[in-house]
Design a protein that fits this description.
With 364 residues, the chain is of the alpha+beta class. It folds into 2 domains: 9-119, Phosphorylase Kinase, domain 1 (2-Layer Sandwich), CATH 3.30.200.20; 130-363, Aminoglycoside 3'-phosphotransferase, Chain: A, domain 2 (Alpha-Beta Complex). 41% of the residues lie in helices and 14% in strands. It has 11 helices and 10 strands. It has helices at residues 9-13, 63-80, 87-90, 130-147, 165-178, 188-196, 246-257, 275-289, 295-299, 301-321, 334-363, and strands spanning 21-27, 35-43, 46-55, 104-105, 111-116, 121-122, 212-214, 223-226, 232-235, 242-244. The strands form 3 sheets. A 5-stranded antiparallel β-sheet has the order 1-2-3-5-4. Strands 6-8-9 form a 3-stranded antiparallel β-sheet. A two-stranded antiparallel ribbon has the order 7-10. The termini are far apart.
Length: 364
């Protein structure tokens, strides 16, 4: 029986090319944007699982373009992986609707997609070892490598200027000036820190780096690891796949994987960039991506970690100053705490940047 869900998943299921009898559905995963369900069907006496997702069209305002990106990217990855023995586990596989489309729009205006469930693999909300960091980075690097020759036309920008640090900084400046909810007085050190680092905001965009297909949300939990071998099997959560700079992807891996604490940790003495984790990420990433990266891209790998961490920090700061309209908060000053954690991580990276750069030089 289907449990009490906020969506009629069984009705949605009837719109997709899925055989067998509907057995039930339950919420799945730890994502905060889309609604995700694990849905079971009886197919010839065997239970078979699928992933159903309702796309959050308040965040992703053009679901049709988003799904066009995902359809093209998954088809290209599948073609590239066709010779691999377990290719169905290496790439997310979209299930078509009954009329052959990649998504279904229900009567309430919700957009739905369905993937085959990838069995015997799982995600982790926090990295547990450098070996896991290596595997995740290798998977993300391989993802970029396989998409380096995606044919034209250019993918849609699902969130315009998503990683455009100078524009993020300009938005912060406007928010500081407006001080709409009178919070600037509580964030004077953070505002000062941000202003002192303005000069680095345009470094990557001004470096003449090639535009490529990028993931743009390279958190550790967006790679599925094989339950037996620990190998990075499949990159998931493709909503933000669009044109961009690969270094933002690598930098966000470092931001979200190398510190031992959560991004809203209040004890800043615990926030640090762990060099062994960085080395594992760099090794894994270059093992997959080195063949297509330019010399300039490799030179900015260490710097990219500092820049993306700063960018996320100023986004948290701007949200705090504006009254928390974007990021969900669960306590007073939550976004300010998040900002402080990011800025402390920036400082830790700055202190170790030379060592990080030397490590990359040795690996290139």
């Amino acid at each position: 029986m289907e449990m009490n869900l906020k969506h009629d998943v069984q009705a949605v299921a009837r719109q997709f090319q899925i055989c067998g009898n509907f057995l039930g559905a339950e919420p799945y995963g730890s994502g905060h944007i889309n609604d995700t369900y694990c849905v079971r069907f009886d197919q010839g006496g065997a239970p078979v699982r699928y992933i159903f997702q309702r796309i959050n069209h308040k965040i992703f305002k053009n679901p049709v373009a988003l799904m066009d990106n995902i359809r093209r990217v998954t088809a290209h990855l599948a073609e590239k992986s066709r010779m691999e023995q377990d290719r169905s586990r290496r790439v997310l596989t979209l299930v078509s609707t009954c009329d052959g489309r990649a998504f279904h729009c229900d009567p309430l205006g919700n957009y739905w997609r369905v993937y085959l469930f990838i069995e015997k693999a799982r995600t982790y909300d926090a990295v547990e070892s450098p070996c896991q960091a290596f595997e995740a980075a290798k998977a993300f690097g391989g993802f970029q490598r396989l998409l380096a020759d995606l044919p034209a036309p250019r993918l849609h920008d699902t969130i315009p200027d998503f990683h455009h640090t100078p524009r993020r900084f300009a938005a912060l400046q406007n928010t500081i000036q407006a001080d709409a909810v009178n919070r600037a007085k509580f964030a004077k050190p953070e505002i000062e820190f941000a202003l002192q680092h303005q000069s680095m905001t345009g470094v990557l965009l001004n470096a003449g780096l090639p535009e490529r297909v990028t993931h743009n949300d390279t958190k550790f939990n967006n790679v599925m690891l094989d339950e037996l071998t620990g190998e990075g099997v499949c990159v998931i959560d493709l909503d933000t796949v669009m044109p961009g700079l690969v270094l933002y992807d690598f930098g966000d891996m470092v931001r979200t994987t190398t510190s031992p604490v959560r991004e809203d940790e209040r004890d800043l003495s615990r926030v640090t960039m762990q060099v062994p984790m960085f080395e594992a990420l760099a090794r894994g990433y270059l093992a997959s991506a080195s063949v297509f990266l330019t010399t300039a891209e490799k030179q900015f790998l260490a710097f990219s970690a500092k820049l993306i961490t700063f960018e996320i920090g100023i986004r948290f700061l701007a949200d705090f100053l504006a009254g928390d309209p974007y990021f969900k908060v669960h306590r007073d000053n939550h976004n300010l705490d998040r900002c402080r954690t990011q800025f402390k991580l920036v400082e830790s990276i700055e202190q170790q940047e030379e060592q990080m750069t030397r490590l990359v030089e040795q690996l290139k």
